[in-house]
Amino acid sequence: MSIVASSSLLVSPSNPKTNATSKLDRQSADFHPCLWNDYFLQYASDDLEVGDEMKKNIETLKEEVREMLISTMETPLKKAEVVESIQCLGLSYHFELEIDQILKQIQNDCVENNEITLTGDLHSLALLFKLLRQHGYLVSPAKLKYVLKQCPYRGIQRLEARKYISIYHLHPSYNEVLLTLAKLDFNALQKLHRKEFGNICKWDISCLEDLQDT
Predict the structure, then answer these.
(1) Which of 47, 127, 141, 205 is 20 to 30 A from 172 in CA distance terms?
(2) Domain 49-200, what fold?
(3) Residues 69 and 160 sit within 8 Å (Cβ to Cβ)
């Protein structure tokens, strides 16, 4: 489909005479002083750098989780539970490739004519259905129609991860490696975000007042 240019101009040509005689005064907002003063500058300190030991521990745990994900001894439903936990704990960005491979394999082996062929408890099958749908796979709800009636709550991912970390140890499929990694990863990201925010607060915005209008 070709795009035909409209005969009418979206922006009218400027009038030289008008531009010569008119001048827009630059408006400046009269903001109140910041209540926080220099409080957030403390976050720009090098003390908030993620230490080498923490980085090493995170990488070690990530490798353990990868081995868990690629293990051929786990059943598809068990792997689905691990993937769900990883997503809820805010760790999925570390394992996007592995998660995609797992769900693709499940789609190839356990879905026929858009229907899940596995047998299992309703909760596990509903979880598998949800994960496949979330990642764009066409799966019929069939006996899982009630899942579609549920309205999943979607909040800010990091805040939801923080809440889930605090209760994950109560989950039936609780895994110590995942929980430890989630805590370390959350703390590392917290330090990174604080440091970035502290660096932003160091900017001298007074120089913007000297910028000329273009």
Answers:
(1) 141
(2) Glycosyltransferase (1.50.10)
(3) no
Are 190 and 198 spatial neighbours (Cβ–Cβ below 8 Å)? no
Burial class (CB in 10 A: 0-12, 13-18, 19+), 33: exposed
Domain boundaries, the chain: 49-200
DSSP 13-66: PPPHHHHHH--PPPP---PPPPTTTTGGGGGGSGGGSPPHHHHHHHHHHHHHHH
pLDDT value at residue 182? 95
Position 142 pLDDT exceeds 60: yes
E-state strands within 111-212: 111-112, 115-116
Tokens 């895994």 belong to residue: 175
Global pTM value: 0.68
Judged by DSSP in three states, 92 sits in helix
